[in-house]
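INFO batch 0412 | record 1 of 1 | parsing
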Amino acid sequence: MPYEAVKGSQALSSGERRRLMATYIILSRFSPEAFGEPKDFKKLASTVSAKIKRECPGVTWKSSFATLGRFDAVDIVESDDLKQVEKAAMIIRAHGHSTTETLVATPWKEFLKML
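INFO prediction complete | emitting tokens
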């Protein structure tokens, strides 16, 4: 779990833990062998998305972006289970024929509060 499951000296209930969702950014770079034609990417993306939804129910997709530059796609997800985020990234790698880099993200206002 990305956040410690205690508040003071008390353990958090499962309901409280669910509210402690962490935000992750998954950066992906597609392999040139991933698809022959750009239009073929739609099917590949749909297949990968369905597999992640099925196998990683604790991961909630917030946004996805196609990008220019070092990475081809940026996905923003939330989860209280790091292992499921790791599994989602591995599914993208294996079935999406991509390399990935996953970052944990702190909302800016929360980051400033802790300083």
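INFO post-check: Helices lie at 14-19, 41-55, 82-96, 108-114.
INFO record closed
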